[in-house]
Amino acid sequence: MYTIRTFRKEDFLAYQTWFTDPAIQRALGHVDEEWLAYVLADETGAEYVMLREDQLMGVAGVSFANEQNPFYVITNLAINPAYAGRGIGSLFLEKITARVPLEQHQYWATFVEIFNEPAQRFFTKNNWEQTLHEDGMIRYEKRL
Q: Which whole number is the average pLDDT over 71-97?
């Protein structure tokens, strides 16, 4: 059974260990105390975790829709490297997008760097539509 909740300070140490994985480093860079402080204080979005019992399985950031942007943005999504390739990322993405009730004009988006082919395959596999390509980024959208 998986549960979703917001990221807590006590999640940081376990999450930080994931960044020894070269694929996560390449896609997301690194996390540090400054990142943690920002995530815990941010009111324009939220960082979510997916847990199986007490095991941290996934972490994803969401930027909330606002007056300027009628879409929610998946800003980052990482799966515990020990469980990669088992469909957990797709399940997590499904649970996050189902968690936020969208108004009729709202939708989901994400921006993927052109070199991040695994993320491109991931969003395509999960039926997100590629809508824009500029400045080294590819935009994907999901309208529910």
A: 95
